[in-house]
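Incident review: delayed structure delivery

Summary: a single-chain prediction request sat in the queue longer than the usual turnaround. Root cause was a stuck worker, restarted by the on-call engineer. No data loss occurred. The affected request and its eventual output are reproduced below so the record is complete for anyone auditing the incident later.

Affected input:
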Amino acid sequence: MTAPVSAGSPTGSIYDLGYRGYEGPRLGRGYAVRSLFSHSLRSTYGLGRGTRAKIAPFALAVLACGPSLGILVVLVFAARFGEQVSDVLGANLPGYDGMWSSTSAFVTLFCGAQAPELFGRDQRHGTLSLYFARALRRTDYTLARIFGFVTALVILQLLPQLILFVGRVLLSPDIVGAFGRDLPSFPAILGQAVLVGLLYGGVSMTIAAYTPRRAYAVAGIVAVFVIPGIVAAVITGLGSSAIGDWLVLISPSSVLDGTNAVLFGVPLNPDFPFAQRPDIAYFAAAGIGIVGSLVICLRRFLTISV
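Output delivered after worker restart:
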């Protein structure tokens, strides 16, 4: 090591350690995007962080799986007492089409708890300038964060369905027949999970992008998912059914109720607002919400100063 050079006072010394530039491989923009996507997905579930960061996401994931586990308990007891699984499933027991209504509250809480962790934390700790100084572009950063969270939501939606699928198949006397019976539901399961992830994930991340304050972001996310449906129901109850039918399209949860019914081929409740409208209206509203949230979020980080 180079000997210290006296600074002229006993308070410190200057060491000439030298400087070398980085000579290793440069993995480029694509690797940076993939790394940030993976980091966003892991951070959403608290992986790689302390125990406290894992409590909320894993607790909500377990609660979301509760309806599926409850159905399996009923099937196990039915099989033990000699009942046919197919007979029990036909006795008004919720199926794949009922999982969204059973888990939507947990998905809302998951978005409120975890979306602010991604964008808000970067703004609070001033790390955006570090991201933008690397190979990442601002659009890369925004989309990697959003789609990391969207993937986490898709996993949250698919896990209860997968538990239900495996349980229904394995508890049936004819496993091969049960597998063939339930497999056609998979495209609808996947389609609904992707729509939930894109719409809820896009809206949640957009709100989180506009405030580094966690409390404000949580309140905003929950309000956007809850209040529009209440407003539409109140207006409909006051006699303005035509206005209420259209207002329901600004409620993400109501729009996804519609897409869920269309994808699984089940009728909507006649009392559900907008029940008599074309099926395409639900998907159009979801598409507008997804694209609109992405555009607004991208604009936010293209213009933000760091």
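Verification: The longest strand covers residues 5-6.
Action items: add queue-age alerting; document worker restart procedure.
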